[in-house]
Amino acid sequence: RLLAKEWLHYRYGVFEEIGWVESPVHPAHYRAADGQWTPNACANIPLESEPSCHSQNHSCPFKIQQEANPELSKSLMAFPEVPSVQELCDEGSHNREAPTPHNLLCDGKSVWEVMRASPDFQNNRNVEGGLRENEVSFQYIRSHNPRMVLLVENSNVMNVQKRWDFMRKAVRKFLTYDIPDGVSIGLVVFNSVANTRYPLTVLTDGNTREKVGSSLPRNPSREDEHRRCVICGIREAVKVINQDGLGGHIMLVTAGSASLGDREISEASQLLTDNHVALHTIIYPLVEKYRAPDGSLDILATSSGGETYVIPDEGIGADSRLSMYYNLLDSFYYTLKSASNQFSLPIKVLSVEHPGGRVPVSAGSFMMDPTLGPETVFAVFYYDVTHVGNQIHLVNPHGMVIDTVNMQNEDGNIHMITVRLAEAQVTPGLWHYKIENRADSHQALYVQVTSRTRQQSKVPRVTLRTWTSHNLGVVNISDISRPLALYAEVRAGLVGVEGAKVTAVLQRLGLTNNGSHHQPLEVVLYDNGLTGPDMVKGDGVYSRYVPRLAPSKYSIMVYVEGDTSRYSFVRQSKLGIVDVIGISPVQDNLPPARVVDLRARLLPNTVNQLGFTWTAPGGDLDYGTAERYVVMASPKHQELIEGGGTVIEGWPTPLSSQSIQQHTVLWNEYETLSYLALYAVDENGNTASLSNIVTVYVPAPPTTTAPPSTLAPTLSPANASSVRDGKGAPVLATLEAHQLAVIFGCVGGFILVLILIVCYCAARTRQQRKADASSKKNHDVQDAYNINVTVASKGVEFPESKRDLKDGLKKGYISPVESWSASQLLSTHQDGSMSGRSDNNSDHSSSTKKSYGESSESNEYYREANPYPYQHVGHPEQYPVPSDGYPTPTESYPGDTYPPPSEARSYMSSQPSDSFLSVSCDLLPSSHGPPAYAAYPAYDASLRSGKMPPPIPPKPKVLYTPEPYLYDNQSLDPHSSTPSVTSEKRIRNVTMV
Known about the structure:
- By secondary structure, this protein is of the alpha+beta class.
- 17% of the residues lie in helices and 24% in strands.
- The N and C termini lie far apart (118 Å).
- Pfam families: CLCA.
């Protein structure tokens, strides 16, 4: 069953009818039309599967059990491992809506629909009952060593410049160094007739190789090239091959003008087919531009299974460029590689040209991976031995310099200097080299590194295989349905290598109108599974279409740089010649590529925001940029396939090709299954095919607000997962008008509040500066009317300067001041008049401070903004406020006498300062005396409607001796500290002003 599945896949181009785990486009489960999660497979019955995880998780697999599905018989392309499955899905049982690879690549057709279009099932070749079982027999075929004949043109076209000299050197190098032991080789030359120069011989030793390599004539024939008989040479070469059995290869080296007529083509084709011979053609040199195919040798070669290579003519006066010689060697190498087991040939690690006349020392590097090592050869090819200086240095990956003076082997017959490294010397990693380059400006040096694979390597060896979509090498650019596609398969053992950098370089042959070479065209190949032409992502096959080539011949080289899980490597391969014919269209008729990886998912922490992700297709296939997208949605899958549905506006413009594009949509349909697809349109109106169709389903929002969760909610994908390659979350949604209004309103409100705060801070700063200026001026006035207050403790003698003050105390001039009762305070508060100002502020400015430890704040009753919270024992409401009789510096004190207090009270606080009287005016009734501190330091002239009092000396009114009041570490002078004193009663001499 597994063999039958793979045969159907190979023979008829059908694909898997089952989804894959971790695939965002072909998931293991999908949401069916009824809204339920269903296994993604084609079957004749509803499948019963019990996954161990949630079906909407892309990493959740499903396994079909025979016991749970006893009637399962389809499809062989989905369940070849189930014994009861022996049939394929047809029109009746096929599920066109399942996102399987077969539905995507075959436009929803069943396997049987695709197979019946094959010639194998035409003309009733598959009539039921018309087949019978036969015994299967297997034939084991063992390949023998290659058998090759080298067929070389010997006419006067080779008697120009260094063409024949390069030919003899290249043949000798090919036979002496390149062909492995055991290969049978013969040599035939031709012009108007053909003759055998050396019969078919097995190469076993150096002596035989030298004899065959020296078989070419020293000088070419002078016979005119137009008399050459190519068919004569092919007949002679086939005759040489048939001397020792059937089958082999002919390597034909001829000039570019060689061609065959229809009769000769027919005869040559019959000869090659009957004798199982493949013809490989090397055009050397290309002396004219190619014509359109008219039965030329390249068609004959490709139809027989061979390759074609071209070496352009690059003559300089009587000389030829070294590039002709090296390209001829290169063509021999790749012809031998295609004709024999590639593992028996050395691997070409490096091949690079270093032009002469530029720098005295040419440098470069090459990568040696762990699979390489035996017979490693570093070779330098030159036109003249004097072009190579004495310096050839190699540097291994550890930085060790290898001086090759005693390791160089010079072969003047083939213009080559080699340095052979022992297997133990070949350290895996990046090597560097330096060569003294003395070549002329019109010549160059070529550096080549080859090595063989290790026999006992512990890591899988890397192989590279290349081919095109046109087996005959002819591409008609007028047929846009069959553009040229390039393929490169990179494997490490049997496993495809992912993530490699694969670049194809197309060199157009011939010259431009000004006589220069055409610029090479570099094309990056991808293994992205986006079809057109890559089918499967990650299988190691890199491919891409190459449209819009001008009619001409193209030589193609493929370069690979990659990494396995254990090492890095480089490889290169020559594809041969591609002949582009036809007429280039005047107008753009190439549509954009098809989008095949459209994905959708419900974004986390949202109710109805859907994120869509896809790869931008390009304007011409997957090149350039498309102009716009057309997005269609429908509740019916078939309606989208037929071109119907509702157009969804507001999608972004396409990005450049290969870019990951994202878009977010608010989906307002809940609990409803919908289908969505898109296609791109270029600037000329060319439209792409419809993309893969994704299902869209948004569950109903919760009726109540759920508590916040620290875990991310489960996603609800629609045949899709998060952004491919982990490159970020989808972009913001297109918001509705009311949502935009809320957002802009919040932003505007925040800006307005910020402006108000800035204005307020500026006003406060300006006001504080004015207050500081006024305070500084009043302090100057205070210095002239300073009040000295002396506080003495018990047992402390007054100084001599204070004797009069002490005597005054004894005489009773200063009466002690006692506390007032609560009733007195309350009555005073009620009877006293407050300032009649409308702002309820007193005549004292906010600069009047109270000291709290080392900090000061505004007085509770004289503050403006930002009050300091008092923490008195009593309630602030009980404290009196100043009356209108409270004097200013320009007014007299009230003439009322102060009656003695009737009751005493104390307030617990920190101890008063020794330097001044610590009495707060807040605790003294305004009707019973003046404040206990000078008003000058706290006076603010701005509070008195423009009055500016002159500095008048204060008028003492009454002398009294207060009892000590204990407050909350308060100080009347904000500029002084608060030292600690004892809590006992002290005698204070106070002079009130």
